[in-house]
Every structure is written in C-alpha cells, then in structure tokens.
Write a structure and sequence with these properties.
The protein is mainly beta. It is built from six helices and 31 strands. The protein is globular, with a radius of gyration of 21 Å. This is Serine protease.
Length: 406
C-alpha cells in the first residue's frame, strides 16, 4: 500500500512545492480532487462545444492512445493483495435483488465514451461562430452507483493530464451509448474529478483510476444539434450576448435581424436514472472471471486493424497478477484480451456480470495493453487492483451532488 503522510487533513507536500511542483486542488488523506466545470453555465458552455454543428467535434474525436502499450509481466505468484476485507457496492436498481441467470451476453447501457480536447479555434465569424476542437480525443468509461446517480469511472489518465502541466483534461464530458455523433441519453459534463493522491502527484500506475461526478445530462431542445434552428436557441439582450463572447463563446447561437441568440437546452435527467450504474467490488481474490466492456480502436503491432472504435465490444477471462514497471505499476491485475490500446483505455472490468440485468461490479479499468508472447498481437489488458484505497477514493466521490444545469 502506498500512503501519504497527513497532518490534520492536510497532505504534507512542502518538498514538492519547494521543487516547483503544485499540490492537487484539494487533498485529504489518500484522495485528491480537482474541478472540471465549477458552475452550471460553464458546463452548458462545454456541452455546446461538443454538440455544435451536429456534434461535429464528437465525430472528429480520435481515441486517446497515450501510454497504451506496456511491457506487462504475468506473475506466477505473489501480486496484489487485499489491504482490508473484501467488499462490494450493489449496482443501481440491484440493491435488493437476487441473482438471475441468462445465456445471452447483453451489452451494458452504462458504458460510453468520455471526450476531451486541448482547445479550440473559431473558423467562423463573431456573428456566426463555428468552433473546431483542437486534438479532440475519447476514452471508454462507465456509470457507477452513487448517492445522486451521477458518477462515472474511467482510467486516471483519461481525466488527469499526464502529458502537459495542466491538472485535468479540458471540456470533459461523458456520453453513454455514443455512436457516430448520436447521444441517445444526452451529454453529461464533468463537475469534479477524484483520484488517488499518488496518481495525481506521482502518476503511480497502481492508482491509475478516477471517479467523476457529472451534472444532469443536456440535450438540445429540438433533438438535433443545429444551432441555427429556432427551436434550439433563445433570444438574449445584447449585453448578455457580448458577455458570452468573452466568457462562454460556445453558447453563442448567432445574430439575426438585430436580435441575439444563445443555445437552448433541455434537462436529460440524472445519469444513473437513465442508464443505471454498475456496482463496485474491491479487495477481491485474483483469478475470478471478468467481462471487459469498452470501445477498442486501432491496430495491432502487426498492422491488423481489428477494431473501429465505433461500437461497444467485450472480452472475457480470468484475472491474474501482473506488473508494468515502465508505468510505475507493480500491483496490477491482467486479463487475456485482444483489445487494442487505442480507445479501450478506461474500459470497465465487471465482476459477476449478470446478462439479464446488464449489471455487475466494477473491479478494474483498462490502463494499458500488452503483447506478452511477442507475436505482434496484443493479448493482455491490465488494470489497477481495486483495494480499500480505491474504495476510499470512490467514497469521497459518491456522496457529492451535482444537479440540473438546463
């Protein structure tokens, strides 16, 4: 176990600060949290960024492939160990139900894609803006159980920016059931991200996971993402429009006949109410079978383009202990899988998945893939081992309200 020394709830980071590194925005014990969109109007601005021009930026996004290929080692003995008693959190709607059997493999509604981008540029005009995302990317993610049905789980580096000096990714949203620009249950903008302190500060691969609270989903009023359609916009005073030009440019819906318009959204409801939420399992024995659900994309090392990333895929196998020293990960779990790394980052590992209810217990998230036998085909996915410290991060996130922003 890796723990930080805390005094009165404040993490001791004097050495880091002296070295010119910054501490996380908020930290208590082993948990770090950082804001993604602090206010409702900021969140609506981000949603408009992705929905504009018939979801052009969503469609243009490519799979995030940073740190996907790892040299994983399959350990014959040893490996991760529980730091306390095994525990589970039941899935949404599954709190009082008994197990049922089904022979079909039904894909979960809870899984989708998270999107983020480096920035934007306006290729239109001030009166008729058209914002194009710079380096838009996506990862896999899933909805999980929480008090307010508003929590998403994914890989830590699909939320926290390990490439630049920024704390978190920009314009972060979750789209469950995403398919070629379609957002069947709306767009859910991230409010606050939670991860382990060791990942936030040290990029510890054994803690490469994150839980993100999201606002209620947003849909455009007319059901299509055409900002020029009258049903999708609302008139505002010129002073408000001028303010949006400076502070919330994505919300602009243009001018016409001396009138000024901004986006009009409708509330799509809470994430967990719409698609459900997986349970959580931690301190579980290695060697149990799991389903892995995600959106793999890209090619194997031999050039075989196995997955498009357009549709949700699954793999199945028993976990085993693994290591990947190159990403500072000594207590991982692995599973045999042909998923390629691009797009599959953040894929949900579900223990005891019930095909009838499409629910199980989240017991891992993909953080990398490996070709362990050297035949130029990826054959293994790896995840942090979910232990009591994972549950601690989850517990810090699960009781935080976000609410409607429409």
């Amino acid at each position: 176990m890796k723990r930080t020394l805390a005094f009165g709830g404040l993490v001791a980071t004097a050495g880091l600060l002296a070295a010119g590194l910054s501490a996380p925005a908020q930290a208590a014990g082993d948990v770090a949290s950082d804001p993604l969109a602090s206010t409702g109007i900021q969140a609506k601005n981000i949603a408009a960024f992705w929905l504009a021009e018939n979801a052009a930026n969503l469609i243009a996004a490519t799979p995030y492939n940073v740190e996907t290929k790892v040299a994983a080692k399959h350990l014959s003995k040893g490996g991760p160990s529980a730091d306390s008693k095994p525990g589970i959190v039941p899935a949404i709607g599954d709190e009082k139900k008994t197990a049922a059997k089904s022979k079909n493999v039904n894909l979960p509604k809870t899984t989708g894609k998270v999107f983020f981008a480096d920035g934007f540029k306006n290729v239109g005009t001030r009166e008729k803006p058209k914002f194009v995302a710079v380096n838009p990317h996506w990862c896999s993610a899933t909805s999980v159980q929480s008090t307010y049905h508003n929590l998403v789980a994914t890989a830590g580096h699909c939320v926290y920016d390990t490439v630049s000096n920024k704390a978190t990714m920009n314009y972060w949203v979750f789209v469950p059931g995403y398919y070629q620009g379609k957002t069947p249950w709306g767009v859910y903008v991230g409010k606050t991200a939670y991860t382990h302190y060791d990942y936030d500060v040290y990029e510890d691969g054994d803690r490469d996971y994150a839980f993100v609270t999201v606002y209620n989903g947003l849909k455009v009023n007319g059901g299509t993402a055409d900002r020029s359609a009258p049903v999708n916009r609302t008139e505002v005073p010129k002073a408000t429009w001028d303010s949006y030009v400076k502070n919330f440019p994505f919300l602009l819906a243009g001018t016409e006949g001396g009138k000024y318009y901004v986006w009009k959204f409708v509330d799509a409801g809470r994430l967990g109410d719409n698609v459900g939420g997986q349970g959580l399992a931690y301190n579980q024995k290695i060697g149990q079978p799991v389903f892995v659900f995600g959106y793999p994309s890209g090619s194997h090392p031999d050039g075989n383009h196995a997955f498009s990333g357009n549709t949700l895929k699954w793999s199945y196998g028993k976990t085993f202990p693994a290591q990947a020293p190159a990403i500072k990960a000594e207590e991982l779990q692995g599973v045999k899988s042909s998923f390629t790394g691009e797009g599959s980052l953040g894929s949900a590992w579900l223990l005891k998945y019930n095909n009838g209810r499409r629910l199980g217990y989240l017991n891992g998230v993909t953080i990398g893939v490996s070709d362990t036998d050297g035949n130029d085909r990826y054959d293994t996915s790896v995840s942090p081992y979910f232990d009591g410290e994972t549950y601690g991060v989850y517990s810090a996130a699960k009781n935080n309200w976000s609410g409607s922003i429409a």
